[in-house]
Amino acid sequence: MRVPSPEGTGRPDGRLAARVFSPAAGEARYPEGVPVLIWVPGADSRGTLTEPLPQAADVIRIAFLFPGGCEGPVCSDGTYDHRGQRSIAALRDVILYAAGRLPDAAGRTLDEVVPVPTLHDDVGLLGSSNGGNIVVAVAAFYGTELAGYLRYI
Predict the structure, then answer these.
(1) What is the CA radius of gyration of the chain?
(2) Are strands 2-4 and 15-21 parallel, antiparallel or unpaired?
(3) Out of 24, 30, 58, 80, which residue is the most buried by the measure of CB atoms under 10 Å away?
(4) Average pLDDT, integer, range 45-65
């Protein structure tokens, strides 16, 4: 799927490649719904679409490619800036998608993509190694905008 990110990609119609992994219907972690985890890999990785933390199958997990990142034939728009301001804005947009505040390029919210109810106010970021730095940066730059959704970093 594609998440709109004009600021992140530097293009008015720019989109990020992302992949959502969800519990099956009826397998929500809590009766009221499922928290969302966004995976941010370390090093100077441009991201991944590989399933993060398969052992956490009872939460929604989102993997994505930073602007300019590719995995096989699938690429995000834009140019990779090595976790700079565009990458930070891109991560913000993925968080907004997870929070139900930003539809994907097909006009669907996360709730319309997964078969379980989503806890939009229970979004977490898991940054592995250097991925932790951009997690802190997105909270620093966009903390006010994300305060109602982002609970764990």
Answers:
(1) 14
(2) antiparallel
(3) 80
(4) 93
Contact 17, 69 (CB under 8 A): yes
8 A C-beta contact, residue 83 and residue 93: no
| Complete DSSP assignment for 21-82 | E-PPTT--SBTTBEEEEEEE--TT--B--SPP-GGGTTSEEEEEB-TT-EETTEE-SS---S
Non-local (6+) Cβ contacts of 112 within 8 A are: none
Q: What is the pTM assigned to this prediction?
A: 0.95
Coil, strand or helix at 108: coil
Residue 34: how many CB atoms within 10 A of its CB?
21
d(Cα 30, Cα 80) in Å, to the nearest integer?
Answer: 37
At what angle are helices 85-98 and 131-146 packed, to 10 degrees? 60
